[in-house]
Amino acid sequence: MKARQLITMALMGVALTVQAQEQLYVGGDISLLPKYEEAGVVYKDKDGQTVGDVLAFFREQGQNAMRVRLFVSPDGSDKAVCQDLDYVKALGKRIKDAGLKLMLDFHYSDTWADPSKQWTPAAWQNLNNEQLQDKIYEYTKDCLQQMKAAGAAPDFIQTGNEISYGMLWGKSGTTANRCYTNSSAANWTRFLNLLKRAGQACREECPEAKIIIHSERTPKPDVMTDFFDRMKAGGIDYDIIGLSYYPAYHGSLSTLETALTTLERKQYGKDIMVVETGYSYAWALGSTTFDYTKTYPYSEEGQRQFTADLVARLKSHPDVKGLFWWWPEDNGNKQVTSGWWNAALYDHDTGKPYAAFYELGAFAQGSTAIKAVSSPQAADSRWYTLQGTPLSQRPAHSGIYIHQGKKTAIR
User: Which of 105, 250, 286, 297 is the most core-located residue (most Cβ within 10 A)?
Assistant: First the structure.
């Protein structure tokens, strides 16, 4: 659909005039939400009212998609690494039942997978390259079959997490299978073959889902484009370029701007999503390498202004279709991990969202926003989000909604 095209939709006898452009997605990686709820953490709105249904609240504030990570066999050594298939099926079903899109993030590891750690699951470590290709296909296929059976079919699928230098390297500490710009062709061929089999399983089981290839080389455009050039030359079947962008590690918004412009000029023919971002509300993140505090102080207002500026910057790039905050749900002094995430979107003392939480939803505003509601029969008494999603009852939390054909503020 072209931007600003007007579409009239019939919904229960009510004509909805919708200003539509290609759908944008915004939300967060909420992989630990069930653990916070189990610990008795209370989520509130900005007025201090307790939120009964956290996912419904997220949706009311303009968020429309959530991301969940999946590990093969987490060993429990890290409390944040608890997302096995049963856990993810249950959380995924909640997300889908709430009317949100689901992004499934395959880590293909028993623990955190990132550019410096892509360790093969313990149960797979004795497989040769050909057997490993079969295993990633079978595992991906089985997970997706089970997700569908559980009512949690993903809408977006990451085949690997921050895989700029390959994945499934082997046992912890091994270096033989890493993929750098000057690595042997054999390493890249091995990696590409694994991606092809993972993608094959995705297409067979979830043909409507969009496949994401995820890199965090945002501050190094030459390395980033070398990576995606290899994806193209290797015939990798995917739909979306996924990026990580954390100012504390990747630099200023101008750095992100350069990365996005570089990707657009390459004309890969792929949409782009920032699938991980975050900025601190109080203290520097661990191992911070870039100080942005002169522009955005470590404060609630600094975090809010960063978020507003990030949203504005991304919306100036038509190829960017998604924005996801990492670990926004970290909340409360009842710790469910060994520490807390200084870039969460909740105040640990009050349980209220920080102001940046409300800024985040602005990214998707206007993608399918209701302009007006009219009916030749009778006024529609239902409430709608600005994205056009009908709500089951009058909103319990403050925000801007559509009701009786008009924008209405709930305070």
Answer: 105
